[in-house]
Amino acid sequence: MSEIKYIGEHLWVGQLGHILILTSFVAALLSAVAYFFSVKNQDHPDAVSWAKIGRISFYTHGGTLFCLIGLIFYAMYHHMYEYSYVFDHVSEDLPLKYILSAFWEGQEGSFMLWMFWHSILGFILIKTTSKLEAPVLFTIAVAETILMTMILGIHIPWGEDAIRIGSNPTTLLRQLNDAPIFANADYLNLIKGRGMNPLLQNYWMTIHPPTLFLGFASTIVPFAFAFAGLWTNDHKEWLKKSFSWSLFSAGILGTGILMGSLWAYVALSFGGYWAWDPVENASLVPWITLVAGIHVHLISRNTGFATRSVYFFYLISFVLILYSTFLTRSGVLGDTSAHAFTEMGLEYQLIFLVVFFTLLGLGFLLYRYTAIRNPEKDEELSSREFWMFIGSLILLFSGILILSSTSLPVYNKLMTYFNPAFEGRVIKDVIGHYNKYQLWIAVFVAVLSSTAIFLRYGAVNWEIKKQAFVKRVVIQLVLSALLTWATTLWLSLYSWQYVLMCFTGVFSMVANIDYMVNAVKGNIKLAYSAISHFGFGMMMVGILASGLNQKFISSNPFVFRGMFTDEDLEKYVQLIKGKPLLSQGYLMTYESDTLIGRERKYNINFQKLNDSLEIISEMTLHPNAMYSNDFSKVAAFNPDTKHYWNKDIFTCIVGLPPALQSVEEAKKIEDSLKFVTYSPSHLTRKTRITKSIHTTRALV
């Protein structure tokens, strides 16, 4: 096959890609080595020279990486299907706006996106870290070196098999496949790209992954500063430099998580704005520990306490990001998450990545532990730092609870390895399981954040202000109780746990408004924490409102009893084209549908009726069914939502007639038909013409 001269292949793309990958890898490795010797020789004149080599090498690494990304975009834009990565993620009918998204749809592209942000952050840190440049950039260069191995694509012979190091995105399709089609020199005219997963063809795919990966990448900066402090044994300088970076990282990562929840809210396949999916949990836990780290950082900066805790939280946050990478990319979550990547044979590299940085960070922390000194005096019970530290421990406990349950597939896989008969542990009621514990975490965090904000560091003037503090809290509690009672007129809080959660959420809002009005006094910086804590309380009430106020207006058990299961009777209706159906005060009409490309869009009209059956409002929503790239079946049903200030009406098609559901079902129907030939003499003016009825189900 190697002797065949293939027609139309652009081999220069792959050749240049290989050169760029190797150059970028070697440059990252050289940068790490140079920065290492710069730190080792920090009291020697050679340190400056080593730092210069490290700097130039890091710039080279970033520059070649950017060129590689541009080259792959070029191949995808021009539909060069001879390359496996292009073939797997692009097709002729893929809209131009999704070419960008298709790049980071795959494992290799997402690794490059991660390294892209590391490079950008590294360029900024080179200009801003001054004397901490060498240890900080050493950490980032090491991370880039290991991540580059994920796209090296080197196969090392090992007995009858080969050790695979990475997956090269510029590998030719025929190098990975020995299908007979590659015996044809003109095979490129016989193949079409598989295209992008229809589930991901959404505008959120364009903006959510870059934001989230910037959040992932940015967590290395607090880690790098913490490691720099441990390496240089200077436990003060790094605290000054890292705080703004920690705020940036938590803000960006939190924004990425919120974007994901918004995407899940408008996409039926992801289970709702927060369904405790393992991949969602894997990104949430590092954010929780990072937020806890920021709080203990404030303690350390203002009092000198908790420096060891700052180290721990910043180090563990990046390690948890790497662990989440292992979970989502190793294939271990393939059966439990709609978000996870499929297995690619990179498991051992991912494990090495996690273990290396765990030992590098936490190992060094244990080594320096006794050298990190705290003030000899213990925190006062009435001090702000004491309760902030307790709150940080509660956040850590929250992360441990979430992570232990999320890691059950890893536990099951390990146990099955040692005992093939092991059946594995599975959480059946996922949402109930997590909510049962995290509800209490939310309650404690809301109470602590709302009261500790009125305390002073070091318990300054506590004896003088104690009475005023108690009086203030009592007033806040009474006002919160009244507002909670008013909220129960709107929400059906049918258990005392929900009442407590609502009360503490309202209390958080009341207390932080009080703080902003009476304590800030024009200093806007003092309001930042109060605003964020107010938002947390509002989120608690919002979660209750959206979860407990859910109502299905697509329910008509009198019409569909016997057709649906008892559970479906409460959720679904079957609509017949052009035939209005009355359901829960709405007159629903399936008006029409249009097939454009692979999208079948429906027009569902809703008329809100009053008790006199008069129309008081009207709207038309447009849910759709998205067919797979080969048009063989429906790949996804996408909802449409009507937004009001106090509610959303959510509409989705959840079932189609079999002939429209898949090609296989249509073929079965076609094969079951019996055709009979009639001569013209058999036809009369009274011939019956049968009209097919197109039906669909709608979830509202």
Task: Describe this entry's structure for a reader.
The chain is of the alpha+beta class and 700 residues long. It has 4 domains: 1-200, no CATH class; 202-381, no CATH class; 463-550, no CATH class; 557-699, no CATH class. 56% of the residues lie in helices and 10% in strands. It contains 22 helices and 12 strands. It has helices at 11-40, 46-77, 84-89, 99-103, 107-128, 133-149, 203-218, 220-232, 237-266, 278-303, 307-329, 347-368, 384-406, 408-418, 430-452, 462-488, 496-518, 527-548, 557-560, 566-569, 658-661, 663-672; strands at residues 154-158, 161-165, 572-576, 581-583, 586-596, 599-609, 615-621, 624-627, 634-638, 640-643, 648-655, 695-699. Strands 4, 5, 6, 7, 8 and 9 form a 6-stranded antiparallel sheet that branches. The protein has a 4-stranded antiparallel sheet with strand order 3-12-11-10, with no helix packed on it. α1 runs antiparallel to α2 and α8 (220-232) packs across α12. The chain starts with 10 loop residues before the first helix and ends with a strand. The model is unreliable at 685-700 (pLDDT under 50).
